[in-house]
Amino acid sequence: MHTVSISDLRANLLAYMEKASKGEHITVTTNGRVLATITPPMDKRESAKRRLDELAATARIHDVTSPTGAEWDVMQ
């Protein structure tokens, strides 16, 4: 993580944006106080895969092919 003052960010914005696009996190400060954090763009494909993996870990699949033994109204 890199910390930069707002005035330095303004003077070198393109350079800091390039660093962020390469994966670096940048904290922007003003008068010693954190103003913002610039983070790299999120990889949507990787994020979606991670979420699906989380769901798959908790999913339960029961017997879906055997008869239930109960008649449904739609079967009459």
TrEMBL record:
<comment type="similarity">
    <text>Belongs to the phD/YefM antitoxin family.</text>
</comment>
<dbReference type="InterPro" id="IPR036165">
    <property type="entry name" value="YefM-like_sf"/>
</dbReference>
<protein>
    <recommendedName>
        <fullName>Antitoxin</fullName>
    </recommendedName>
</protein>
<dbReference type="InterPro" id="IPR006442">
    <property type="entry name" value="Antitoxin_Phd/YefM"/>
</dbReference>
<dbReference type="Pfam" id="PF02604">
    <property type="entry name" value="PhdYeFM_antitox"/>
</dbReference>
<comment type="function">
    <text>Antitoxin component of a type II toxin-antitoxin (TA) system.</text>
</comment>
